[in-house]
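Ticket #4471: structure export looks truncated?
Reporter: QA, pipeline team
Priority: medium

Steps to reproduce: submit the single chain below to the structure queue and open the exported record.
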Amino acid sequence: MAVISRGQITIVDLNDGKSINLYLGSNVATTQIFNKENSSYVPNWTASPFLVITPEVYVTGVGTNQVSRLKGVPVWKINGSTTIATFGATAAR
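Actual output as written to the record:
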């Protein structure tokens, strides 16, 4: 799956100089535009290809994604709710 967009947060621990970089990758554009003429959104995330957000965690000195080494699974929320199926979303583990 091709990565179209990515967001980033960097955390730096000044004690040992390592940093943790957190990315949210996306398979489609993360900016959605509303078309007033036909009342539609572009891209339409409810149609294929569906929006897939993939977390990535990188540590200084380690070249691979460390998300599989997390001690717990991520908790996904939409508008503060963990019942994401209400919004037509699913979460893969």
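Status: closed, not a bug. The export was complete when the record was re-opened. Leaving a note from the reviewer for reference: The chain has a mean pLDDT of 82.
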